Structure formats: C-alpha cells, structure tokens
C-alpha cells in the first residue's frame, strides 16, 4: 500500500470494524479465525467473509489456511486503524504525503483543525536492526506479529509522554495526540541540520546544547541525538525523535548524554570546523564543576 490517504478513503465502516476485529483477536490468536472476527466485529459471517476477501485483495490482511481459515494484520492496516481513530477524535483533519522515512518510522504530513500543520509519525518497531531496541527485538523475534505492533504502540506512547513532559520548556514539536503506534505532533520548522547550510553554526550549536541542558534539567536524555534529529530554521532549533529517551537516573545515563553531546560536537567540527571541548560542554549540561584534568 503506497498511498495512505488513498487507502484510507477507500475503507468503509465495515472494513474498519473487520480490521478492528482482527486487531482484538490477535491478542489471543496468531491467526484469527473468521468466526472470531465475525463475533468481535458484530458482522454476520457472510459479510465478514466478503470484507476479508476484499481486504486481502487490498493487501491489508494476510490469510493462512490452518485447520481453520485465519487472518492477521500488519503495519499497513494498523496505520489505517490509528489514523481512523485520530480523525474521529479531530486530532487530524486530513493526511497528506510522506514527510520522511526514518530508521524506525514513516512520517506523514497532515493538517489539524484550523489547518494546523502536523506530522504524524507511525512507529515501526522490529523491522530494522538498530541498537536501541536490539534487546527488545531479540526478545520479539519469533513472537507473533501482534508483539511487533504492540512494541510500536509502546514506543509511540513513550515518545508522546516524553515530549509532553518537555514541551514547551524544551524546543520540541508540540505533541498533539497518540493512538496505537501513531504520534501526532506539530510540524517542525525548517529542515534537518544534516541537510542545512547554516550561516551561524556557532550559534546553532550553542542553541542545540542549550536544549540538551534544559532537557537534562527535566531529567531527560535524548539518547539518539544527531544532525538527523535536529531541525534548524530562522526561529532556532527543534529536537525531534524521542522514543529512546531515558531518565537521568538510568544506569547508563552518563554514557548516553556523553554520546549525544559528542555526536553534536563531532558534526559541527566536521562540517563547520568548530572546535569545542566535550568535557566542558558536558559539565555545563550537568551543571557540575569541570573536573581537573589528571
Ligand atoms: N515534527 C516533524 N516535523 C517535520 N518532519 C518530521 C517531524 N517528525 C519527523 N519528521 C521527519 O521524519 C523523519 C523521521 O522521523 P524521526 O522522528 O526522526 O524517526 P526515526 O526514529 O524513524 O528516525 C525525520 O528525519 C524528519 O524528516
Ligand atoms: Mg530520526
């Protein structure tokens, strides 16, 4: 399914209750029997079968013949269920084209009430290998599809909670709503630092480190900070992509904040030839006196 907006428009209410029936059924079954889908959705069996055939043709449900006929959904249908709920709640008024594809997400442009520019981020846990959730993924491997969807929903909820805690003290897009694995936030201004050619790199670097410090004072460490997760514009900087954020009480906190800051300094040094001292930057963020060099 290439176009989310197009697929969404095609869906009828019966399609949606059928997909929801499978979603609920997947808590108990890897492949949800037709009878169970019909029971949960309240559609009579022949109607449910008809919808399931159509949805299967659209690539929104997978079918498996066991000693019964079973169905399951994957991310494309999960995206549509989340979007449907967000639209019903008036968090999203219309969804547009893709804004970006990240390591663990697909992000779409959208509009909210009063044409508020939004970004809708659909989490995709368990698809690529990446260190932050490698442990979780190992744990998920071989588990039913449901666990991938569930892990993505947990990631979206965590990201929403972190951003909600940081906004507006820290410059992050305002979080608007979340449903399942989808997070709605305001669209960030400008472009990613990785793609920008900025005139005042020193000021931008200072602004990023200030945001890191403010987050730290709220006990939050980003833990995946890089030029790809920082937006720059005339108005300043915004930091995105918070699902892996940890508390400053985390056992690896020192290492994680150091890695974040080192990534930022390395980027500015490589691209803009700015030399900055890591220990000094870190001590300012942690509000600790600088340790004497041994
Ligand atoms: N609020 C936003 N406004 C504009 N673009 C965004 C926003 N959030 C994400 N994006 C775009 O989507 C991409 C992926 O989002 P990100 O949160 O970084 O997820 P990932 O963990 O997949 O890297 C970003 O690099 C960016 O291009
Ligand atoms: Mg990112």
Pick out its properties.
three-stranded antiparallel sheet, elongated, five-stranded antiparallel sheet, 294 residues, Phosphorylase Kinase, domain 1, binds magnesium ion, 3 domains, Transferase(Phosphotransferase), domain 1, alpha+beta, binds adenosine-5'-diphosphate, Arc Repressor Mutant, subunit A
Give structural notes.
The chain has 3 domains: 70 residues, Winged helix-like DNA-binding domain superfamily/Winged helix DNA-binding domain (Arc Repressor Mutant, subunit A, Orthogonal Bundle); 106 residues, Phosphorylase Kinase, domain 1 (2-Layer Sandwich), CATH 3.30.200.20; 96 residues, Orthogonal Bundle (Transferase(Phosphotransferase), domain 1). It is built from 10 helices and 13 strands. The strands form 4 sheets. The protein has a 5-stranded antiparallel β-sheet, with helices on both faces. It starts with a helix and ends in an 8-residue tail after the last helix. The protein is 44% helix and 20% strand. It is elongated, with a radius of gyration of 22 Å. With 294 residues, the protein is of the alpha+beta class. Bound molecules: adenosine-5'-diphosphate and magnesium ion. The site of adenosine-5'-diphosphate has 18 residues, from strand 4, strand 5 and strand 6.
């Amino acid at each position: 399914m290439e176009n989310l907006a197009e697929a969404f428009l095609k869906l009828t209410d019966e399609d949606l209750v059928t997909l929801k029936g499978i979603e609920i059924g997947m808590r108990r079954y890897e492949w949800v029997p037709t009878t169970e889908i019909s029971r949960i959705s309240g559609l009579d069996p022949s109607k449910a079968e008809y919808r399931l055939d159509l949805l299967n043709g659209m690539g929104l449900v997978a079918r498996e013949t066991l000693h019964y006929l079973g169905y399951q959904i994957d991310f494309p249908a999960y995206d549509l269920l989340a979007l449907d709920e967000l639209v019903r709640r008036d968090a999203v008024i219309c969804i547009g084209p893709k804004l970006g594809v990240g390591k663990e997400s697909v992000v779409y442009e959208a509009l909210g009430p009063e044409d508020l520019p939004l970004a809708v981020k659909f989490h995709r846990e368990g698809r690529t290998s990446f260190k932050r959730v490698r442990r979780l993924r190992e744990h998920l491997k071989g588990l039913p599809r449901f666990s991938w969807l569930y892990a993505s929903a947990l990631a979206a909820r965590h990201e929403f909670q972190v951003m909600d805690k940081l906004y507006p003290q820290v410059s992050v897009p305002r979080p608007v709503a979340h449903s399942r694995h989808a997070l709605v936030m305001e669209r960030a201004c400008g472009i990613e630092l990785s793609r920008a050619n900025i005139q005042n790199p020193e000021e931008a670097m200072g602004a990023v480190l200030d945001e890191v410090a403010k987050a730290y004072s709220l006990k939050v460490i980003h833990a995946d900070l890089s030029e790809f997760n920082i937006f720059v514009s005339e108005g300043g900087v915004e930091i995105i992509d918070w699902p892996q954020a940890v508390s400053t009480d985390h056992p690896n906190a020192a290492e994680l904040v150091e890695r974040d800051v080192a990534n930022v300094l390395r980027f500015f040094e490589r691209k803009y030839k700015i030399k900055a001292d890591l220990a000094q930057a870190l001590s300012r963020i942690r509000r600790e006196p600088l340790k004497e060099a041994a």
